[in-house]
Structure formats: structure tokens, C-alpha cells
Amino acid sequence: MTGPISQALAEFRRNRQAASWLALPFFQDGSADRVAAKVDTVIAGGGHVLPPPEAVFTSLRLTPLDKVKVVILGQDPYPTPGDSHGLAFSYRGARRLPASLRTILAEMSSDLDAPMPASGDLTKWAKQGVLLINTALTVEAGKSGAHMRFGWSDLVDQAVAAVSARQPAVAFLLWGAPARKRAALVDRGKHLVIEAGHPSPLNRLNDFKGTRPFSRANDWLVEKGLEPIDWRLAS
């Protein structure tokens, strides 16, 4: 009997919106099945894995490859139950916004002269073509980074490379060292790459604030004849 993550993978493969991503080697060569099996082993051993199985592939389901206009990379899901729902940085918890997300939204508010959102749910961005994908799609409750070496990173590398190869014009917003390393996978002749420090308050260089990635991405998309992203969220 397969575990919940393997079942979620099977369901993702049946989803019509997933078709463009399913051509990636990760889903063709057994990698996805092996990673899902590793996570299922953790669950079978009593581990509390986040986000819920049905949300693990949300980033790919909401943003098909042929709809991607912006890419934002995160690290791994929030390790507190109820917070993560499968989109990088997005938050559905009941407490104060996580520090990095608060920094991101404050920059958006300042950059676009928009109200500071009260909600941290970034689903609206994903539905407009913003791929919000974490380097690891799962984590264990209370154990940040626990699944970073499970093999999810191969999926992210392949997704970034595929977007670069197949899409005509995409803005890659790469924040922090791990994300910035993936700039090497992007064809800068076709795409816009905006690099900055990580929005975490632990970033001592504080080189995220004032970089205006949202307006810069939108200006570039308009230059390319594409609809800009409406970054505003419910205030």
C-alpha cells in the first residue's frame, strides 16, 4: 500500500494542469517516486510532515510551465502545522506573518505604494503566473530543513532550467545565496534576473530592502508585451 505522499504524486500526475511539468526527468525517471517514498517512510515512522499531502505540489499545480512569468524560489515549507500550503513564502497561519514574508510584503508595499497586506496568502500571485516553489517541497514539523537532501532539489533545478528554455520572457527573482546559485540555469539573453539578499531579518547585509523587484519585474514584463503581475493583496 502506498503512503500519502505517493498518493498525492499519483493524483498530481492525473491533474491536467500538471501535464507541462510531468515531462521533466524528475517525473519520468523514477526520481519523484523515490523522493515520495522517502517522505512516506518518515510518515510511517510517526513523523509529522508538512504541508498536508494534497498541498505538496500546489506550486506546480497552480502555475503550469507555459503560464510562468515570474519565478520566486524559497527554501522549504514553514515547519509549523497550519502555516504552509505548498507555495514558497506563502502563509495561512493564524499568528503574525513570518519575518521573511513580512519583509517581502513591506518591500512590495513600498515599491508599489500599495497598502501593507494583512494576509500572507500568495495564491493570487501563483494564479497570475508567479512560480512560488521551494527547494524542498516537504519538511517535518519543528525541523526546518529536514528534507533538504531528500532529492527535491533536482525537481527545482529542472523546473528552473525548463522555464528558461521554454518560456520566452520570465523574471527570475532570486533572493539569498541558494536561490542565486540557480542563476546559472537561466538564459540571461531571454530573461530578467534580479538578485538580492535573502529577506530574512537574520541577513546581516540587509541587502534586500530597497531593491524594488516587483516594479522592476513588472516594467520588464510590460516591455516584453506581457501583462504585469498585480502584486497587491488584501489589506
TrEMBL record:
GO terms for biological process: base-excision repair, AP site formation via deaminated base removal. Signal peptide: none annotated. InterPro entries: UDG_fam1, Ura-DNA_Glyclase_AS, Uracil-DNA_glycosylase-like, Uracil-DNA_glycosylase-like_sf. Its main location: cytoplasm. GO terms for cellular component: cytoplasm. This is Uracil-DNA glycosylase. Coiled coil: none annotated. The active site is at D76 (proton acceptor). It comes from the Bacteria. Belongs to the uracil-DNA glycosylase (UDG) superfamily. UNG family. GO terms for molecular function: uracil DNA N-glycosylase activity. It catalyses: Hydrolyzes single-stranded DNA or mismatched double-stranded DNA and polynucleotides, releasing free uracil. Excises uracil residues from the DNA which can arise as a result of misincorporation of dUMP residues by DNA polymerase or due to deamination of cytosine. Pfam families: UDG. Its EC number is 3.2.2.27. Residues 61-221 form the Uracil-DNA glycosylase-like domain. Keywords: Cytoplasm, DNA damage, DNA repair, Glycosidase, Hydrolase. NCBIfam families: PRK05254.1-1, PRK05254.1-2, PRK05254.1-5, ung. It is found in: Cytoplasm.
